[in-house]
């Protein structure tokens, strides 16, 4: 029914029974059809596996070993078995717009010098309510301008050359910021880009200080340790300083409601809101 896949989508899953259905349905709703979806279960103990097993589509492949090894391990496992020319990321709690894969494949075909392309995202809450958008940087130079502060390339929007991912791979010791570590290791010899179009809905649940501090620490390790190993001590120092400032901003924001120190989200225009409404409904529709 379908040609050999051009895009392999890696979707790690761990206890995502409440969101995995909409995530997978958003892939099935893609206008681009030459894909395979590699659902990499990481030892789920809920109904996640039963939910994904209900789809009867030869392009969906479920890999389940019954143990928990972490997201980086599962992504590398997907890299080892994928068949597509391109490798794409997707998370079990996010939702793709229908044109996501088509837009990114077209971009990669038109820009063969690019190794990895992302896209803009719209933030939403669990009920689908839109929080806003954060415009991403578009060129490699803009994305990589401040490596010590992070790369503005949303991980679940990434689509790149399979061979590029296999060359760099993920590292399990940096789970929690494995994407930032990957980008930091590769950016000086690679070319990144971002499509200035919202192509994915990014779920953002209630932020807690504990969760934010855990994420900041993971990023400090992912970039700081790598920079230290490369003897890039200026990056180590800048990384530590910027993380300290971000921690202060997190505390002021979460504990005291101070919002002026955080990157402000832009409101979504009415057309985008309508598009998102349609995407939300289609991804939550009953499966035939």
Mean pLDDT: 93
| Residue runs with pLDDT of under 50 for 5 or more positions | none
Which radius of gyration do the C-alpha atoms yield? 19 Å
Element pattern in H and E: EHEHEHEEHEEHEHHEHHH
How many strands appear in the DSSP assignment?
9
Which secondary-structure class do the elements indicate?
A: alpha/beta
- End-to-end separation in angstroms reads 17 Å
3D shape: globular
The amount of beta strand, in percent, is 15-25%
Can you summarize the main beta sheet?
A: 9 strands, mixed
What is the helix fraction of residues, given as a range?
40-55%
Our count of helices gives 10
Q: What's a concise summary of this model?
A:
This protein has helices at residues 20-28, 48-53, 71-81, 100-110, 140-143, 162-168, 178-186, 209-229, 233-256, 270-283, and strands at residues 7-13, 35-41, 60-64, 86-89, 95-96, 116-124, 130-134, 159-161, 192-203. It has 288 residues and is an alpha/beta fold.
